[in-house]
Amino acid sequence: MNILLLGSGGRECAIAWKLQQSPLCKQLFIAPGNPGTAAYGSNVPLSVNDFEGIRQFCINNKIDILFPGPEDPLVAGIYDFFKNDTDLKHTIIVGPSKEGAQLEGSKVFSKKFMQRYNIPTAGYREFTNDNFEEGLKYLKNHSLPIVLKADGLAAGKGVVIAQSTDEAISTFKSMIKDAQFGDASKTVVIEQFLDGIELSVFVFTDGNNYVLLPEAKDYKRIGEGDTGPNTGGMGAISPVPFADSTFMQKVIERIVEPTVKGLKSENIIYQGIIFVGLIKVNDEPYVIEYNCRMGDPETEVVMPRLQNDLVEMILKMNGGKLNEVKVQHDPRFACAVMLVSEGYPGNYHKGRVMSGFENVKDSLLFHAGTTIKDGNIVTNGGRVIAVSSYGDTIKNAAYKSYDNAAFINYDGKYYRADIGWEFL
Ligand code: AMP
Ligand code: GLY
């Protein structure tokens, strides 16, 4: 199989690492990739949203499988673009149709979907410019905190948890009146705040059958003890101690099965990943959001723990035979620690020379925001590199990642020293 993986983050580095281990993988290309993915395949200088460029590349290189890592190309309809093209329609796409990707691309779509199938989620209302005044009144009378979400994609920044009515109102105004997130915030979902502990569940579906990949927990806040602003994710662990069989059975019965069945009953084409971001409130699972892709940095612990051949799973997915797959988990814990640039998630420097890679032992390095400049690997993003390790306990996995994180050098290196903290 010739495979083209789209993306350039830590997630894609971990997926590339996994794909190239498969004997079924003949050639692996990553567009645009990063210095980490270059170790597992050939990087191709194409943007994930350059459908025309991707089209030509796939034809020229006889690509059998297209694996979009991030949500953007899926929400923009890369699936439909391929299936409507006579030269490309036989390509296997790991990901949903444009309509299916609305589970992530539109909060209103996903809320209504959950409502139709009684899938547990926070209560909500939706507002636009047309019922703006009603929205203000609603916010003034609502208990705190309260959650405001831009309907569309906003690069992970479209969710605000307002602690005061003033903050809620000013956020609401800037989203709707000042188009803070452009068209994405023309509609705003106002949602009840759920207080609990989060879990990332990864469903791999062929549209009929599904399997669960190892679950993970992501650490989103920049500061230790889960303080400070939200980031793309500062680390992850897998497995997650509270996701025991009783809890996961509830997740399957109340969320996963109604989701897969609901998509099927509405003839929404969906072959790929459904990432359910959920929250456990008093032992009960509620959906916070759906995503149509893997999580980052969750993938940096999920791929290391997935023992199956990923390419074989993709072929089973394409054949509608995921019922024949039994997912094998590595019994060990995995812990990913994300090394970031000082200042992130605010302003930060790029281009800082990195060193020390050769001293890392017994950890996997998944490059996220790095590039090559003048022959050196340099920082090129807020999240720079994930250090993932195995251990027989969370603590041992985390310690190994911290030991190795110390070897990687660059100016302004920062990481959270407490990944997995609540389970130690
Ligand atoms: P999202 O972009 O929907 O994943 O939201 C980003 C983050 O905001 C989530 O990972 C949660 O930490 C938090 N969040 C979103 N919705 C809620 C909610 N209803 N209650 C509490 N926290 C939430
Ligand atoms: N780590 C959360 C996400 O990928 O959306």
Name the descriptors:
single chain, 424 residues, alpha+beta, Rossmann fold, Dna Ligase, domain 1, D-amino Acid Aminotransferase, Chain A, domain 1, 4 domains, six-stranded antiparallel β-sheet, five-stranded parallel β-sheet, binds adenosine monophosphate, binds glycine
Task: Provide a descriptive summary of the structure in words.
The protein is an alpha+beta fold. It contains twelve helices and 23 strands. The chain is 27% helix and 27% strand. Strands 12, 15, 18, 19, 22 and 23 form a six-stranded antiparallel β-sheet that branches. A five-stranded parallel β-sheet has the order 3-2-1-4-5. The protein starts with a strand and ends in a 10-residue tail after the last strand. The protein folds into four domains: 96 residues, Rossmann fold (3-Layer(aba) Sandwich); 70 residues, 2-Layer Sandwich (Dna Ligase, domain 1), CATH 3.30.1490; 128 residues, ATP-grasp fold, B domain (D-amino Acid Aminotransferase, Chain A, domain 1, 2-Layer Sandwich), CATH 3.30.470.20; 91 residues, Glycinamide Ribonucleotide Synthetase, Chain A, domain 4, CATH 3.90.600.10. Helix 7 packs antiparallel against helix 8. Bound molecules: adenosine monophosphate and glycine (GLY). The site of adenosine monophosphate has 12 residues, from strand 8 and strand 17.
